Amino acid sequence: MDVVLSDMAPNMSGQLSVDIPKSMYLCELALDMAIKTLTPNGYFFIKVFQGDGFDTFVKSCRAAFVKVTIRKPKASRARSKEVYLLANTLK
What we know:
The chain is of the alpha+beta class. 36% of the residues lie in helices and 30% in strands.
């Protein structure tokens, strides 16, 4: 597989202490799938919410991929914790 794209998000309750861990769990599942299914030069593109577990998730991505880039879209609200992570080339 050349690309794994994940725009998954749990149903948000508005309570970050509940929503962020649920979101991070989905991110971890997507990363696991990407590692198992991507071709060596494949791309992993995922929506991630900043909060508890974000830094650990980014470290996991950097451990698995040669290049990892994080961007916040201009269209995203300033108060939104949503960012996108693009990783490519499995190590």
